[in-house]
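Changelog-linked ticket: S-adenosyl-L-homocysteine example.
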Amino acid sequence: MKSILIILCIMAGGIILPQTDKYQSARIRMVKTQISDRGISNTAVLEAMKKVPRHLFIPGEYEREAYEDYPLPIGYGQTISQPYIVAYMTDIVRPNAKKKALEIGTGSGYQAAVLAEIVEKVYTIEIVPELAKESSALLKKLGYKNIIGKYGDGYKGWPEYAPFDIIIVTAAADHIPQPLIDQLAENGRLVIPVGPPSAVQELILVTRRNGKVEQRRMTFVRFVPFKRL
Ligand code: SAH
């Protein structure tokens, strides 16, 4: 009886600690040196990035570079953003457990997973059908029940679930799609890289307060182009 109990306890321990993987120390180091040391102090963002196994969102050949300080290819000419950029974008949209978010450009699903650790629900749209399928399978496997993804052109947003408190666009557009501004809730925050493709773009933060829409330039970034169907 005693030995059965001990075995059960060991099994339970394994279930309680699913984040113990071979990259855990690399992940904790990444969060310290690349994110908190660079000024991001939002505990929810730091905890989420300590938890999400970034290496699982990256093709096998680059897996060992998953926690390095740069973006990586995810196939189909697309990239997963540098960890700091994911943290920065997540931080400036002020996520919390009551918020509903929309992401345009699911890609690997990593940004959606980081957001889903903090907010109530994440809706995410991806224009490359293979990436939409692969990311949705991975997010399901990892147990994210609060992420709903679909294949499609995110330009028009997702009117059925609007308005959104948070909208994160992870591909660079030459202008801010009006449907996304229209789907931003009161006190909502939208972040989007705006500028020419294959060059430096500006990250723009759009806010809506008392019905008034305002835009602020935040920093310079480099994202893959926003495409249209
Ligand atoms: N957030 C992603 C980053 C992926 S790169 C991650 O964490 O991995 C940006 C993604 O935006 C690409 O996968 C690209 O195919 C997608 N994309 C580009 N234009 C789009 C559009 N109009 N609608 C939806 N997705 C788009």
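Closing comment: Example verified and attached. The radius of gyration is 18 Å. Strands lie at 72-75, 78-80, 100-104, 121-126, 147-151, 164-169, 184-194, 201-209, 212-221.
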